[in-house]
Amino acid sequence: MTIPISIFPQLNASPSSTGLLFSTKAILQVISSPVVARLVDGYNLEPLILGLGIEVVSTFLYTLKEDYYLWAVARGISGLASSMIISSGFLHVQRVYRQGAEMGSAMSNVATGIILGVTAGPPMGGLLYG
Fold first, then answer.
1. Interval 83-113: pLDDT, tens
2. Element (H, E) at 92
3. How many of the other CB atoms lie within 10 Å of CB of 60?
4. What is the CA radius of gyration of the chain?
5. I need a surface site. Which of 69, 85, 88, 97 has the fewest CB within 10 A?
6. Cα 58 from Cα 52, distance rounded (Å)
7. In this structure, are residues 26 and 37 in contact, taking their beta carbons and an 8 Å threshold?
8. What is the pTM of this model?
9. How far apart are the C-alpha atoms of 17 and 118, rounded to whole Å?
10. In the prediction, which pLDDT does 15 show?
11. Other beta carbons less than 10 A from residue 6's beta carbon
């Protein structure tokens, strides 16, 4: 989730605090991914659905109050949800495509979609916002 830049002055946070706010999601995603990857292996699509639900909760937290600490918690929860969604998604692709070449092609398509969303999403969101 990208936070529109125009709201940062309302948080009264320093530039380093703002950077920490942005990096909270990535930090929690990196920390939680190995644990989540082991947990999702025993389930089908339930962790994916749970991850999407947690992402909704994290998005809802942004609407409650313009507070730096609440937003940091929301970013952290979003990182946990992202690790669940990505781990479950790749696991599902691996279960559907068992053959080497098919699975490699499917995994590369998933990775390309993730990269495309991460790189093209914010500019498109900016165009839609403005």
1. 999 999 888 888 888 888 888 899 999 999 9
2. helix 68-96
3. 10
4. 17
5. 69
6. 10
7. no
8. 0.80
9. 22
10. 76
11. 8
